[in-house]
Design a protein that fits this description.
3-stranded antiparallel sheet, 51% helix, Methane Monooxygenase Hydroxylase, Chain G, domain 1
């Protein structure tokens, strides 16, 4: 829940900063928030609290890097592809129910609310983002999500907590070939 709520706030704050042209201020706020979390990690914590905050630090570092990149590129609005291509969490109405949607480009997947434990997170790199875009599109189109690599791929395993869907490598379907009738 901590990671989901943090991502919801980050998405809404970044969209507001993009809309109002206050990205440099938002960039500083993201850096300050990250340092506050790092200070908490250095304090007296239980193992569970430390593990939760360590996962939050990984996401906050990526969030800070994304905001820094958007600011450097002078992204003018939340409709820009640079922003749309990021993994974003929004609070929306889904089939008459209010809940969290995970979005990336034009893909939107309801947040699964699946408890997957308090696991550590991989560092998110630009390559990880590219893999996430491919996987989000595949899951959104219901064409599977198993890339042509070993099913225990770390990127694939790290993607599932992002949308909180159960990960079971034995049940993954390979990407299906789409055919279009002309």
């Amino acid at each position: 829940m901590v990671l989901c709520i943090g991502s919801l706030y980050w998405t809404s704050q970044t969209e507001e900063a993009l809309s109002t042209g206050t990205m440099p201020t938002h960039q500083k706020r993201c850096a300050d928030q990250l340092m506050d979390i790092v200070e908490k990690v250095r304090g007296q914590l239980t193992k569970l609290q430390r593990k939760t905050l360590a996962a939050l630090v990984v996401l906050e570092v990526h969030a800070r890097d994304v905001v820094t990149d958007l600011t450097a590129k002078n992204v003018p609005s939340p409709n820009d592809f640079e922003w749309a291509s990021q993994l974003r969490y929004t609070w929306d109405e889904i089939d008459g129910k209010t809940g969290v949607m995970v979005r990336m480009i034009n893909a939107a997947i309801p947040y699964g609310n699946e408890y997957l434990g308090n696991s550590s997170r991989l560092v998110i790199t630009p390559l990880t983002d590219r893999c996430y875009r491919t996987l989000m599109g595949a899951v959104h189109l219901d064409v599977g999500g198993a890339p042509e690599v070993h099913p225990h791929s770390l990127t694939l395993q790290s993607f599932n907590p992002s949308i909180l869907q159960p990960f079971n490598p034995s049940t993954l379907q390979p990407f299906k070939t789409l055919t279009f009738n002309s």
